[in-house]
Design brief:
- By secondary structure, the chain is an alpha+beta fold.
- It has five domains: 188 residues, FAD/NAD(P)-binding domain (3-Layer(bba) Sandwich); 119 residues, no CATH class; 130 residues; 123 residues, Nonspecific Lipid-transfer Protein, Chain A, CATH 3.30.1050; 172 residues, no CATH class.
- Helix content is 43%, strand content 16%.
- Strands 1, 2, 10, 11, 12, 13 and 19 form a seven-stranded mixed beta sheet that branches.
Length: 819
């Protein structure tokens, strides 16, 4: 069966991407290995010996950003899910125990600010500056513009970022309390990822799903089916076929085959690539790219059912984070399986949703873990260790809440092997690739794979793990797929994203920048606006474009003004964004270009220097495979044909007539000779690719036909004005063609340059200037012809020679290497 899009994996990322696509008319199918949808966003049931039912939430502790007008709220609203599920507001983000100090962490921005100020008065100035900057980032997120703080935060650890505000380590320890649910401690985790999650919790509000996480997944499933999507459960994919750089077919364990135009991998991409039957260079290269990334930690979770409510045993808050050592030591302990010396979380689900378990208590104990700490799955050693870890975790619970011991009815431990078994995640990772400084932000794995028709969604790609991250990532991936299809449709090109597929620029970088500057649209700025753009290509070429007084000027040096936006990328990437349909926003999130400065100005660059019309010239070349995608030496843009030769040859009837009309006045012969000459030139001499009739050739036929008729029908007029007719017509032709922006010279010069340059405003401007130059030359020649009597007026032909020289060097100068 054939689909528009097949989604591999039925977790929240797969569900949200499938819903978005189905709402946009795509025929979508999800394939999930489990017998239920949702991945980690599911509920499961257990009964005790007396038949009492306990409903456990697999993983949800809290979900942020759901207050109106917050980023995640808007995402959920966009896919019509915000009112389909009931979200319960938590009373606080969490309660943390640092040794024996208990602190309720509010989910309100202002309350959290003053909590920290009251506790750490000596850091008040730094705390206020930190919260001010976080609020700026939140406002940028709400505006749906590209936050410029991304650049600052993505290249620094949370610890170093907080230290830049002169905050002490104890405060940083409090601020970084949620590290367990993001996979890395403050000194290792990417500041951007943590701060974005922090914003969701403390500005966007902290919530729980009424009915448990499974209710959220069930609602997604229902909405997808309402929109015509299909969901295949218990349908694990066991084989994937590729052809070249495209995935073509998936095979399920049930022996079924399915095809699609596009695929979204909403699961571990390492696992997916291991299912590919062909081991071609694309597969090997992408697989190597994946396995060289750092994989995040796993978790072990002890699910506990009580015969009473959790409040009766002293668990009075929905979420506890218990720390006995600092976060860095805690993380190292988790990696080696030293559970007694690591941070752990306790989440009470009957407090989060009293209706989920009305007569019993349900909570979970969570510790960081790694699959290397565990023996082989289902081995005797594994079973023995499970019992040992249960006791170790229970001991931790009893130390804090001793009453629990007498009320336990259900115990179930999930290990890293459990996480791997249900999700196929490498090493049982629950957060995908680590959100470290190297792998966060725009350095996160791109949601467009090296395969031309395969996208990624979920914890392994942007923005990352967690319920909010997975749903947001699925929506962003679906948006990107739809956006690229629109770009491809609008520009009639196939959008390719990987560097290996980018079209090699066929013009010098200086020529490109000159053309881009000349394409500036003065209507896009106000007269008083002053903007300075800096472009750094391949870390070796730097250009500046200054916009001032509604004009754009290309500079090789900074004029000393403040730079509004700096764009750092490769020339190849920028060329493909301008001409070949490469998605600029996607390229930025893929880490192919970085941006510093004003987000407003950056987003307006396509309007300032519109190149959308230029990309249409690639239609046939790309579809026919004519454009090179390897790094051969660039060919010169100039001299495809000799402009001056063909322009001179076309002007020969006019030049000869101007000379001989002084001595020979047989208009019939001159007219016939000129018409025959032009016909022979067009039919027999011009190269095949230059056979179209130029404006000058058309005017030659018309003018000399009238010239001959005037000679025969109105001889008295011809005798008086005949020798000036040609000059006057030629002058008017060139002047008028320049004024109406259909310059005569353009027909010839466009055959000498590549099609991208021909489509630019700069090229048009050059040809208008050349056409005006020739009009002026012909006018001066006429004046000399009238005023200078005798052979001396032949000196006017020197002007034509000067014109030819200028016509040769002027375009080269304008399109030459900028220095």
């Amino acid at each position: 069966m054939k689909y528009d899009v097949i989604v591999v994996g039925g977790g929240l990322a797969g569900l949200s991407s499938a819903l978005k696509l189905s709402q946009n008319g795509k025929k979508v199918a999800i394939f999930e290995k489990h017998h239920m949808i949702g991945g980690y966003a599911t509920n499961f049931k257990r009964k005790d010996k007396d038949g009492n039912l306990y409903i456990f939430d697999v993983a949800l502790h809290g979900i942020g950003g759901l207050l109106p007008d917050n980023a995640f709220y808007n995402h959920m609203k966009d896919i019509n899910m915000i009112n389909k599920v009931e979200f319960l507001r938590k009373s606080e983000a969490a309660t943390i125990f640092n040794n024996n100090n208990e602190i309720d962490i509010p989910d309100d921005f202002e309350e959290y600010l003053y909590l920290l100020i009251n506790k750490y008065e000596h850091c008040e100035e730094g705390i206020r500056k930190l919260f001010c900057e976080i609020n700026e980032l939140n406002l940028e997120l709400k505006s749906r513009k590209i936050p410029m703080l991304y650049q600052k935060l993505q290249n620094i650890s949370l610890y170093d970022y907080l230290k830049s505000f002169n905050l002490d380590d104890e405060l940083i320890n409090d601020f970084g309390f949620l590290w367990l649910y993001y996979g890395l401690p403050p000194k290792k985790i990417n500041a951007l990822y943590y701060i974005l999650a922090w914003i969701s919790y403390h500005i966007g509000g902290t919530f729980y799903v009424k009915g448990g996480a499974g209710k959220l997944s069930d609602t997604f499933e229902k909405e997808i089916k309402v929109n015509g999507g299909d969901i295949y459960l218990s349908s694990e994919i066991v084989k994937v076929d590729v052809k070249g750089k495209k995935v073509t077919t998936i095979h399920t364990k049930n022996g079924e085959e399915y095809t699609a135009d596009k695929f979204i991998v909403a699961c571990d991409p390492i696992h997916f690539t291991n299912l590919i039957s062909d081991n071609n260079e694309v597969v090997k290269s992408y697989r190597n790219k994946l396995i060289n990334r750092d994989i995040g930690i796993s978790l072990s979770q002890l699910y506990i059912g009580l015969d009473c409510k959790t409040t009766e045993v002293g668990i009075n808050k929905s979420d506890y984070i218990i720390n006995t050592v600092n976060h860095e030591e805690s993380y190292e302990s988790a990696l080696r399986g030293d559970y007694s010396n690591t941070s752990y979380g306790i989440t009470s689900y009957d407090i989060l949703d009293p209706d989920l378990n009305k007569d019993v208590g349900v909570f979970v104990v969570v510790v960081g873990d790694h699959i290397k700490n565990w023996p082989s799955y289902k081995s005797d050693e594994y079973k023995t260790k499970k019992e040992e870890v249960k006791e170790e975790l229970l001991k931790l619970v009893y130390e804090r809440f001793p009453k629990v011991k007498d009320h336990i009815k259900v115990l179930e431990l999930g290990t890293p092997h459990t996480m791997k078994r249900y999700t196929n995640n490498s090493q049982g990772a629950v957060y995908g690739f680590e959100q470290n400084v190297k792998q966060g932000g725009f350095n996160r794995l791109s949601n467009k794979s090296d395969f031309n028709n395969v996208y990624l969604a979920g914890s392994w790609t942007n923005p990352g793990g967690g319920f909010e991250g997975a749903i947001t990532g699925g929506i962003l991936t679906a948006d990107r797929l739809l956006r690229e299809e629109k770009i491809a449709l609008d520009k009639s090109v196939e959008v390719t994203e990987e560097n290996d597929d980018l079209v090699v620029p066929d013009m010098e970088i200086s020529t490109f920048m000159i053309g881009m500057t000349a394409n500036f649209d003065s209507k896009t700025v106000a007269r008083e606006e002053k903007i300075l753009l800096e472009f750094i290509f391949d870390d070796k070429w730097t250009y500046y474009i200054q916009i001032k007084n509604k004009k754009a000027k290309l500079l090789c040096k900074n004029p000393g003004d403040k730079i509004d936006v700096t764009i750092r990328t490769s020339y190849k990437v920028w060329f493909n964004i301008a001409f070949c349909g490469l998605d600029g926003k996607g390229a930025m999130f893929d880490g192919k270009l970085s941006v510093l400065g004003s987000p407003d100005i950056f987003l307006k660059i396509p309007k300032y220097f519109s190149t959308s019309s230029l990309s249409n010239v690639y239609k046939n070349e790309i579809s026919n495979g004519k454009l090179e995608t390897n790094n051969e030496n660039l060919k010169d843009d100039i001299n495809k044909i000799n402009i001056l030769l063909w322009l001179t040859l076309t002007l020969m009837p006019w030049i000869v007539t101007d000379i001989i009309s002084r001595y020979y006045m047989d208009g019939s012969v001159i007219a016939l000779g000129s018409i025959l000459y032009t016909a022979v030139l067009m039919l027999l001499i011009k190269p095949n690719r230059f056979k179209s009739v130029t404006k000058l050739e058309g005017i030659t036929f018309i003018t000399f036909s009238i010239y001959g008729l005037t000679y025969n029908l109105i001889p008295e007029v011809f005798e008086m004005k005949g020798k000036y007719i040609i000059n006057i017509v030629l002058i008017l032709t060139f002047f008028i063609s320049a004024l109406i922006k259909k310059p005569i010279t353009e027909d010839y010069s466009k055959e000498a340059y590549n099609e991208r340059m021909v489509s630019t405003k700069l090229f048009k401007k050059i040809n208008i200037n050349l056409t005006l130059l020739w009009a002026a030359i012909f006018l001066i020649q006429l004046i000399i012809k009238v005023l200078v009597v005798g052979p001396l007026n032949s000196i006017s032909q020197l002007l034509a020679i000067i014109g030819l020289i200028i016509s040769y060097y002027y375009p080269k100068l304008k399109l030459s290497e900028f220095s």
